[in-house]
Amino acid sequence: MDQADDLKAFERRMIEIVSSLQPSIWRWRVILFILVVVTLVTFYALINDDTSNKSSSSVNESSDNSFLSTLSSHLFCKKIYFSISFAFLIFAFLFGIHRKMFSSSIIIARFRHILADYNMSCDSDGRLIIKPRPTPTYLSASS
Q: How far is it, in rounded angstroms, from Cα 111 to Cα 127?
């Protein structure tokens, strides 16, 4: 009875560890999604920049532009915002956001590796799976 209690306590602890990682995983996924979207939007705005293609021979360029194009050109200091968002994206990957997003699957894989020595495994929630004992090959191969 003591071994069953130990296994139940171990299983509860594994479930607790895996479930405690879930909120932080979603937080890192949202942060990465926001970084990627901001970088893509600023890159798109930088690519479609009309002010860099115009010649500066005209004295009054702003009167030809519509209100929305003027607003977008002043709202997005395109080069600066793209540089900042791209730098944040690079720093996020350098500091391991990709490992933080998949930390629960990394821990589950480590649990499975260790539990394989004891003829057990676990599911993605951390619940134990007890496998049947392997039969020795020297007993089944006797002739």
A: 11
